[in-house]
Amino acid sequence: MRFSTIEELVRLAETQGKAISDIMIEEEENATEVPKEQIIQKMQQHLDTMEQAVLRGLTEEVKSRSGLTGGDARKLEGYLQQGRTLAGARMLQAVSRAIATNEVNAAMGTIVATPTAGASGVIPGCLFGLAGDIGADREAMVRFLFTSGAIGYVIANRSFISGAAGGCQAEVGSASAMAAGAIVEMAGGTPSQSAHAAAIALKNTLGLVCDPVAGLVEVPCVMRNAMGAANAIVAADLALAGIESVIPADEVIGAMYRIGQAMPGTLKETALGGLAATPTGERHRRRLFGSNQGTTGEGDIENA
Amino acid sequence: MKYRSVFDIIGPAMIGPSSSHTAGAARIGRMARRLFGRIPHEVDIEFCGSFANTYQGHGTDVAITGGLMNFDTHDPRIKDALKIAEDIGLKIRISTVDPPGEHPNTAWITLQDRAGTMRVKGISVGGGKIAMLEADGFAMNLSGDAWTALVFHKDHFGMIASVASVLADQRINIAKMGMSRKAKGQDALLIIETDEAIADSLGSRIAGIADVGQVRILPPL
To answer: Which H/E stretch holds residue A111?
Structure first.
């Protein structure tokens, strides 16, 4: 790839008058020597898989094995239908689709990792929640995934995208930044605005820890996906309004890396700290797995 | 660069709930089986770090077992992998260990059948990406993204040239090559990643070279 930073990505796009999605498709073609048509076709398949997951989560009775999650997407969708929401229909459509996807994931259903399974709701949530309203066709939706992928590619190589390596900021934070940049492009913004949106979204999730109850990708993951989608839309709106991130996207990514390194092991997907170590979190763990997977106790956030 | 394609980021399509602990685990299992080269009868899996602490919740044990039976990350049979393994008589033993200094998502896998044993180490680095770091005491760094030839042989001069010439004959370009040996003149492993597909017949030709032991041809995951 000819870019390894967000700055290089934006420069490649803007000097040629192209969209970030164009650059990602071209670079993928050059790097992998797979023909463009096949690359686009594969992304269309991913889009279809995501759509099926959203649909399942919104229409079927989805329940995880643990019983901790499932059914909230439908609950929110019902509330939306009543037409008296505070956040507005668009925002909550995105949120309900993010929840739907992540509930399907928790129930061992089929999803697309974007960039991970734990954060798999954010990008399809924003995409399917907004595309209809802003008149995006199927091609624009596929482009959305390439733009997200370009931003995620930089984050993954310069920082991390797994909760075990960098906490939830690396998962839901990265997904939110990827979605924010892609929303800007889908809404007609510039590559530079996409970069600002990504920077803002990622800034707002810095420090977020990965503390899954009983080690399951359920609590708080599903709700964090809801927040990640909402955060992405707000960040995109801010950037489209011309608001710029004082700290450039690449420096935010660098900060995320250093914060992740400094984060104690108990808060990096080990289910030993944070919400996992609350009395209720512990109770659920004991109910599900007995005592063979011990935590260090409530409030203990020493380095593992 | 750890991640080389947009589909490392948007993808894989997979059975939930975790790309590192479920999809990555399935791929580690699949690579382990490919390194072993045949269906194992018994497998010991040792989980370290986050794998050890959260494997039950993430279905890591289920997914790695699915991978050992060659299931892909999006294969719906993964959900029932432990049951299927039991049905086909594949014995799986899970344990947790906590050696210092390991990557947080590490699995040591010992595969066995009547013909032999192999111990391999795989890590899941995030988003479904993996690396196999060791097999039978040989260090390696295999992502499973490219066609790979593993040539077990006796260390001596000219080995790399002999193997490379077989590949060159078929106009196969070498993308990456690595050598791991236990000591000078001892058992060694040549690891070659190629841009083009490697036919099984080519593996047999390489196996015909003097002092070459086993040859494994691994297609991309």
So the answer is: strand A110-112
A153: distance to nearest CA of chain B, Å? 6
- pLDDT of B127 over the 80 cut: yes
Is the pTM value of this prediction over 0.90? no
With an 8 Å Cβ cutoff, are B54 and A270 in contact?
yes
What distance in Å separates the CA atoms of residue A269 and residue A304, rounded to the nearest whole number?
Answer: 11
In tens, the pLDDT along A170-200 reads: 999 999 999 999 999 999 999 999 999 999 9
Q: Which residues of A touch B8 (CB under 8 A)?
A: 153, 156
User: What ipTM was assigned to the predicted interfaces of this complex?
Assistant: 0.94
- A 122-151 residues with CB < 8 A to B: 123, 145-146, 148-150
Cβ–Cβ below 8 Å for A160 and B126:
yes
What would the DSSP string read from start to end of A147-203?
HHHHHHHHHHHHS---HHHH-HIIIIIHHHHHHHHHHHHHTT--HHHHHHHHHHHHH
Task: Identify the band that residue B53 occupies on the pLDDT scale cut at 50, 70 and 90.
Answer: confident
Tell me the domains of chain A and their CATH numbers.
6-263 (1.10.4100)
Average of per-residue pLDDT values in chain B? 94
Domain boundaries, chain B: 15-142, 147-218
CATH code: domain B15-142 is 3.30.1330.90
Copy the structure tokens of residue A295. Answer: 């935590």
- CATH number for the B147-218 domain, one of 3.40.50.2000, 3.60.40.10, 3.30.450.40, 3.30.70.260? 3.30.70.260
